[in-house]
Inverse folding.
């Protein structure tokens, strides 16, 4: 399956989930510090709709601080009416637009990780396709961005998924479901509880 097809599939899964959420669930705290479910959705919508001009303007207003720009955008869009958020998320399913400098695989990482940021607190986990999990895990293990320093987090460790055929690295072992490995590499501490092995404490100190 093409990467963009996987992005669309993940967005569609999320749009389907959002259709059934209650007002209370929309305001539930996500795994992203300071963001509610609606703010995470706002972030995903913003990424799918962003133009180069809007990105440049946003960066200027944020003093070229990426985290500040993303936070402002997520909260601004997330404050929209729930029906508007549902509509825009559904409209974004097949978007092929990317923020400047972002690759399609990074859009896949974004929607998979943030989808779990929403699903885990709501207790609405679902199986993620193996092909998608493997691609996301492979990309995360080599990322060195300030927001997702997966390469630094897994350095000197051996990670192995217990539910799909995926492993990486060498050193003290960290084993568990691929989703938990992905979320741990993405800095989500709650996922560490699903992992075992001699390297878990080291990974935890880097998350």
């Amino acid at each position: 399956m093409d990467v963009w097809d996987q992005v669309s599939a993940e967005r569609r899964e999320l749009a389907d989930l959002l259709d059934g959420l209650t007002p209370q669930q929309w305001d539930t705290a996500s795994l992203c510090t300071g963001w509610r479910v609606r703010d995470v959705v706002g972030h995903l919508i913003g990424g799918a709709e962003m133009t180069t001009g809007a990105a440049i303007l946003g960066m200027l207003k944020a003093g070229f601080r990426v985290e500040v720009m993303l936070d402002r955008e997520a909260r601004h869009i997330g404050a929209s009416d729930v029906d508007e958020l549902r509509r825009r998320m559904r409209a974004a399913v097949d978007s092929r637009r990317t923020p400047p400098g972002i690759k399609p695989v990074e859009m896949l990482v974004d929607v998979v990780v943030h989808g779990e940021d929403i699903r885990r607190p709501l207790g609405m986990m679902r199986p993620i396709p193996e092909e998608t999990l493997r691609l996301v895990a492979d990309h995360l293990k080599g990322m060195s961005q300030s927001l997702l320093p997966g390469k630094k987090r897994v350095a000197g460790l051996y990670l192995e998924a217990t539910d799909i055929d995926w492993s990486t690295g060498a050193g003290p072992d960290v084993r568990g479901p691929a989703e938990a490995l992905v979320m741990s590499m993405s800095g989500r501490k709650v996922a560490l509880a699903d992992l075992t092995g001699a390297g878990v404490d080291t990974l935890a100190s880097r998350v």
Notes: DSSP finds eleven helices and three strands in the chain. The mean pLDDT is 93. The CA atoms of residues 161 and 181 lie 7 Å apart. Strands lie at 158-161, 167-169, 173-176.
